[in-house]
Amino acid sequence: MADLSEELDISKISGFDRFAANGKIRPARASVNAALIGNPRGTYTEDCLPPQSNSFKAMLETADVGPFTVTGLRPAVRALAAVMAEVKRDLPAHYAAVGHEGMLCCRLVRGSKAAVSNHAWGLAIDLKFGKNVAGYGRGKVHGGRLALCPIFNRHGFYWGIAFKRDDSMHFEAGEDLVRQWAAEGLLGAAGSAKIGDSLTMGDRGPRVVALQQALNRALAPSTIEEDGIFGPITRLALIDYQSRNGLAPNGLASASVLKRLGL
Questions:
Q1: Are 151 and 22 in contact (CB under 8 A)?
Q2: Which of 9, 81, 249, 254 could form a disulfide with 242 if both were Cys (CB 3.0 to 4.6 A apart)?
Q3: Residue of 166, 206, 130, 119 whose CA lies nearest to 13
Q4: pLDDT (tens digit per residue) in 156-186
Q5: 120: closest CA among 67, 173, 162, 166?
Q6: What is the pTM of this model?
């Protein structure tokens, strides 16, 4: 049997496109999480901090999901348990070997000063095989994680290998799944909020990359880093674009602004 903890170079895996790994599943935007779940705490750093909001804490659950015990948002923990039940049935060797590096962690995305990690809402799990985590931005993936992706995808989870800066140990509830939980009344009072498809400060993912690329085209020769994180520099570039084009310079990438940018 292959070594599930073997580190593979992502760029050298035959026929594998990490940016296509999740199909149509998209990561949940921070703005969507805040609207539908609430804000776990008032301030964030790159360190793990405890949640402060009592309404948010009431939605947390600690449970045995099969190979390990986690604490996270209640519907996310239960969805993770369903994923692991399928892993146990179809991939028993993976089930026996998989470990984790945590689920609930109220912090910023590593290296960011504005984007809140989806770990802050207890929506994400970092998985490992063996002691080496083959983690963030290293261009590496454990062989064992490749087989887990289709199972997580079937349950509505997004694999972080597709982030602009790869995060191959990271699996998180996708935005459609979070919206589904809200529609089912699983997210408390905040879950009744109506939200659109705008992008704003703190959002991350492929749609933010597309926004940054469009802004770089529109504002050339000025360039912003196309890192998939909607931070202060991206917001300033958007305000510049809005001002140049007679739009309200509010730094919000609304549906109409995105359409004007060709997105």
A1: no
A2: 249
A3: 166
A4: 999 999 998 899 999 999 999 999 999 999 9
A5: 173
A6: 0.85
